[in-house]
Each structure stands twice: as structure tokens, then as C-alpha cells.
Give the backbone structure.
Amino acid sequence: MNYEEHRRNYVLGGLRRENLTDDPFALFEKWQAQAIAAELKDPTAVSLATQEPSGNLWQRIVLLKGLSEGGFVFFTNYESNKARALAQDNRGALLFPWHELDRQVTASGHLNKIGDDESDRYFASRPRASQLGAWASDQSRPIANREALVSQYESAEQRFGNGIIPRPAHWGGYRLVPEQIEFWQGGEHRLHDRFRYVHTPSGWVVNRLQP
Ligand SMILES: Cc1cc2nc3c(=O)[nH]c(=O)nc-3n(C[C@H](O)[C@H](O)[C@H](O)COP(=O)(O)O)c2cc1C
């Protein structure tokens, strides 16, 4: 396989200072809407990096489920590896890889659990199979084989029958409140446009960065 030949030019257009908004979330929402309109697969997928108690770094994709209280919200298992990492060190970083639009958005900040009521509301809106999945999976823990996993799912099915499935206490949302957000738009001749917003006591300060 030839890795070296895989490259392309980024010609979809630039990001100029006049395109920026004072509040980076306004620009984020515009770009997120464009990613959805462009029918990207998993347009809200975002890679989340955390630091584990051992000091090792890890990352994984989660789905963005909303913006609120100045942060990015996603849902997961509160006993997963990522949750254990966050219990020790609640810093994290996000990366939205919007290749088809020649864009990436990166952010870093601190994460905290969202309110139970917010998690209840979202959990109630999920398809039943996803609700059962949240009960069935002891996320990030080893399991002997797939049959055992399916059997955990079937136990959850039996437990709840046709009744309402409550949110498990071990499942809910986190919010990453960014201290920095960067917007990257690919440009010709590798002269990409990068704008980094940094949150300061007097508000957001934005700088163009060299590519
Ligand atoms: C497209 C995609 C979307 C995903 N969305 C979520 C999600 O919203 N929440 C979640 O907990 N895991 C999600 N996952 C699985 C995670 O990437 C990861 O495997 C899981 O959360 C366990 O991570 P951890 O062991 O580091 O805690 C998704 C994976 C992919 C590929």
C-alpha cells in the first residue's frame, strides 16, 4: 500500500476574519448545520480525548447531542473508561473531522456531568433498543464473547417487558465547556485558514494562526 500518494488540494473556499462571529458557538452552529446539510455520515460525530489515571491518553468518537450552557453535550456510560478518566482529570479535547467540507473544529476545556433532569429527558427520547443497550452494556469492561453480551441485552428486555425503561443511574451526559475553540478551513497551496478563539475574563479573543 502506498500511503504517500494520498493527498489532495483544499479548494472549497476560505475562512476570513469577516466570516467570524464574536461568539464561536454561532460559527460552530453554522458549520454544524452545513455538515448536516451536506449529508455527511455521522455529521455530529466528534472525537473526545481524555487523560487516563495512568497518564495515558485515549480518544474515542461520541455523538454531539446539543449545545447548552456554553458547552458541547454528549451522552455515555458513567462507569466507562472515559468516565473513570474524567473523574480523575476532567480536562478533555474534541475534534470534529469534517473532511468533505475541508474543515475541522477542535476544542479543549473541562467536562462535567450534566443535570439528571437533562439526562432523563434525552434518555426518554432515545429508541427503545438504545435504551435497552444502555442497560445491557457494562461499557469498557471485558466480556467473554458476543453471546454473553446478547444475553445481557435479553435480560434487560425481560426485565422491562413493555414498560417504560428508566434511565440507568450509570448513564448520562457530559458537557465540555471550551476554553479554546479552533476553526480550520483548508486552503490552496496548504495556506489553510485557522482561527483560534481563547476564552478570557473579558470574553472571547480570536487570533489567526499560521497553518
Ligand atoms: C460514530 C460513533 C458514534 C459513537 N457515539 C457514542 C456515544 O455517543 N456515546 C458513547 O458512549 N460511545 C459512542 N461511541 C463508542 C465510543 O467511540 C467508545 O467506543 C465507547 O464510548 C467506549 O469508550 P471508552 O471505553 O473510552 O469509555 C461511538 C462510536 C462511533 C464510531
Summary: The longest helix spans residues 146-160.
